[in-house]
Amino acid sequence: MSEMMIAGWGNYPMIEARVSKADSAEKAKEYVYGTNAFITRGLGRSYGDSSLNTNILSTLKLNRMLSFDDKVGILSCESGVTLSEILDIFVPRGWFLPVTPGTRYVTLGGAIASDVHGKNHHKDGSFSDHLISMDVMTSEGKIETCSKTVNADLFKATCGGMGLTGVILNASFKLKRIETAYIKQTTIKSRNLDETMDLFEKYGSFTYSVAWIDCLSKNERIGRSILMLGEHADPADIKDLTISKNALVLKKKSNLNIPINFPNSILNSVTARCFNFLYYHKHPNRTNESIVDYDSFFYPLDSIHNWNRIYGARGFTQYQLVLPYDMSKDGLMKILTSISNSGRGSFLAVLKLFGKENDNLLSFPMAGYTLALDFPIIPGLFPFLDELDKIVLDYGGRLYLSKDVRMGSDMFFKSYANAGRFKSAKLYFDKNNKLQSFQSKRLGL
pTM for the whole thing? Predict the structure, then answer.
């Protein structure tokens, strides 16, 4: 066990915690028995305080791959294995993740606890939709195997349950076949929010879709975007490229690193407006088609190590909301107008289309549109986000727990229809109330 200063990816809040590591189920059981209140943590890529407590159990040493069925693509591994490790091993063998978030630096346990989604949610759902089974250790030290059909209540509470039902030890899930490590990408510029949403609908047959959105544009340009569409490339698509002999192996790249926190004054409304203007006009053509490697398409920010330091020592938060399909256009227009009028521009503003909601109690997606925005932690930010909360509630939406650092319990219980059921499930599976995070206490769980 070691004491250290630790934070989520947003570097806010920064706390002192006692961090212990378990490299086996036996060690995890010893920790569970000997600790009154704790939360598990993987790579710490949740943005806020959902993996923070004064006592933390790190799963990073539970990092063994257990089995792989290369006929159907079923992989079993421990919860501390990272998506990056899975990609490095299985992409060269012709397999890819069924669903991936915007970073490869997430553990399997973290992906389950957050029930991560990706650019293909409208087609393929969340990560848990491809999960076959998992082993969860409850606060009593008992190991329960659960799936959609076995111990289904534990499964539905654990997927998206932010680590509050038990320690995820291992899981099995299905990978998808690919022929190359490349993506056929189409980018389309839109002039405003109406056109952006029309394009999502028009190109809904694409497996992957995401839009960068200019959240500071005004009037007839509000919501203008760059829509990015993608499909896995086959060998014929890349025959003219200069690549390695094996189309499933990428050339190694040198990545940038941000060694220190940037000064807090660098990110402001002026630099945000300049960035949004330049990024939009960086794409001179209405439509462009290209072949890019999967890292560039799925994980552009991973090429900059410690990019979170750009936001300075005060840190930042990502405000990610989802609105029901029929309410999305009006709700997003009102939210984008509020942001534009406030001048609190986001450098990273991403819009995606979600498909149907799953049966898990706290999974974030619902059929509709999700908007994610990064804001530096500056005076007055939280009261402004409180105002956005009201809009989200008025339009029937909710916020993503994996990004949240300040939502109140009232907002949470009003926006998550199954919040009460989850609280009851947590009390049932965590009878000793040992699984706690700063977030769970703030939300009244």
Answer: 0.95
